[in-house]
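Worked example

This section walks through a single chain of length 245. The input is the sequence exactly as stored; nothing has been trimmed or padded.
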Amino acid sequence: METLKQSFQREGYIFIPGFLSKEEVDEVNDKMEQFIKDKVPGMATGHAMYEDKSNTATLKQMQDLNLYDPYFEAMLSNSRFKEMAEILLEEKVIGKTLEYFNKPPRIGAPTPPHQDGHYFKIKPANAVTMWMALENVDGENGCLHYVKGSHLKGLRPHGRTKTIGFSQGITDYGKEEDIETAIPAKPGDLLIHLALTIHRADGNTSNTRTRKAIGLIYYGESAQEDIEAKTAYQKILAAENYAKA
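Given that input, the structure is written out below as tokens.
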């Protein structure tokens, strides 16, 4: 575990294969299918997003599943995920949200390079995002790409994108230092990154495969919301008439 923590602090992310067993992943997938069937029609505006609003089969993202279902609330707040977050951040954590991500075949859009800390608006930026594959994810259907050590270089400038669910992306991405590592994943594999770690994903070019995953966000207890920065950010989004990511 100490070696894992050292790697996490050095690289800004870690990869843990088989964090959940096949049986556990099957259960999550079953619960997710039922959630989509039962809960999505009644979700608040902005909590369910589609690549094509006229086609419910293009569901690409859901937020705050923990607010709608006790199963996902327990996964966020009373689980091995939370325990791992506390180990890595070396303090008590607060589970903020559990999300669902998908990239529908052919039309699943790329995720722009970004740092989650830009969205979080917290000081210090002591938070982690966990991303777990629910099916095989590779270069064809949009695996994650990380920039090693990018969390050590501060917050980069972000600006508006046209990507639903990720309204802000790094505006000066593509520097010599932005060397990426692509990480394919199997069901149950877990990726964890710090709030300032740069990451992105390609679109889904497959004709038949989806790219389903869940995300869990934890703030360390030391992290405090920067009200001034958050207010300014919301004003920008409102002025752009663009949905908050």
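What to look for: The first helix runs from residue 2 to 11.
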